[in-house]
Amino acid sequence: MWFCPLDGTLLQIQTNATTHYFACTTCPYSQPITTPQIQKSYPTRKKVDDILGGEKAWENVDRTMAVCPACSFGEAYFMQMQIRSADEPMSVFYKCVKCSHQWNDK
């Protein structure tokens, strides 16, 4: 996307008999397109906070019999957290004892 340097409006591509050009719809600005205008930009992803508290949250938790969806091991650490409103049930989070895969009951 290209923007008008005078008022910031998104420029439109227009064509006359011989050339293509960028034209602003709100002011008389126009710029002929003489070369292909290709530019790629990718947004940087921000670091996501761990809502479970990171590795320290798993230090003193209990174990239970639960099958890991990643490695099928039959034992996992678990913790319960209230992440929705008070009238909703608590969410249970699991972490595999063998492969450390994390999942929750939905």
UniProtKB/TrEMBL annotation:
Origin: domain of life: Eukaryota
Keyword Transmembrane among UniProt keywords: no
Subcellular compartments: Nucleus
SMART domains linked to this entry: RPOL9, ZnF_C2C2
Gene Ontology molecular function: any one: zinc ion binding
GO terms under biological process: transcription by RNA polymerase III
Binding site for Zn(2+) 1: C4, C24, C27
InterPro entries found in the cross-reference section: Rpa12/Rpb9/Rpc10/TFS (IPR012164), Zn_ribbon_RPB9 (IPR001529), Zn_ribbon_RPC11_C (IPR034014), Znf_TFIIS (IPR001222)
Domain TFIIS-type residue range list: 64-104
Family per record: Belongs to the archaeal rpoM/eukaryotic RPA12/RPB9/RPC11 RNA polymerase family.
Entry protein name: DNA-directed RNA polymerase subunit
Source organism: Cyclotella cryptica
